[in-house]
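Hi F.,

I've been meaning to write this up properly since the lab meeting, where we talked about keeping a consistent format for the predictions we share between groups. The idea is simple: the sequence comes first, exactly as it goes in, then the structure tokens exactly as they come out, then a line or two of notes. No screenshots and no reformatting. I'm using this chain as the first example so we have something concrete to point to.
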Amino acid sequence: MSLSALLHSLLLQPVANDNGLILPFRTRMPQSLRRVPFAEPCLMLILQGEKQLQPAPGQPLNLPAGQMLLIPAGCELTFTNQPDEHCRYLAWVISLPADDLLPLGRGPVRRELQHFSSDPLLLTLMQQWLQIQPQLSDPQQLLQARRREITLRLLELGYSAELRSGLQQHFSRRVQAVVSEDLSHDWQISDVCQRLAVSESTLRRKLSDEQHSFRDLLSQLRLVQGLNLLQTSSLSVQQVADACGYRSASRFSERFRERFGTSPAELRHSQTADTLIRQTTVSSSTLTV
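Output, unedited:
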């Protein structure tokens, strides 16, 4: 099968709501976001439209449909999702957790974005997963195996240094793991200290060494969770605010705009009602995520 035929077949591939591997993002209007953080290495496939990246140093980078983007852990992206002439933008994102990166071993680390033409083997690994996952009674073990297959293919393509960014041990990740269990909880620094068995002064010092503070880290996690929920669920802005630990939608909206350069309402306006369901419906000419 040719590369173009494989990409077209992915557009017609149903994406189950709970497939576990691929998170689809779609918009029908230009959608601009700034300083979106990536805690883990991620592989992105642009299927429709164009992703316009605005890196801090260097010239803007436009990635058309058919391109892949490898995002190292610790990166923050400012970008515009630009729909095509049919008002369609679609990208698939795969996160690569540290547990799936263990075979990498030691070596250099690089935190530069890498973009390349779609690799047929990576596309096939994605398609096969979407085809077999609905038939699995317990897909978790096979899910990790498929992520590792994707990791190994990226290694073969020469991206080991970018993938190792996800293996670096940061104290802030331990804090993130605790508070991410329930971002609606009213987390206090004393709660996290108790869970991690460290003193408050030690926790503050370790976070400061990594150029973080507890409040800033908690705020970032809540806003990123809000961004994900706005893009991948049908929850109202108030419900998203509640799920992210904000007592009011207005306060959440204010912080969201400060961080990402757009409001939750504007982000939702760039989508359509059918965009908010993480499930694919296929016809001869449309794909809804």
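Notes:
The first strand starts at residue 23 and ends at 27.
Residues 273-289 have pLDDT under 50 and may be disordered.

If this format works for you, I'll send the rest the same way.

G.
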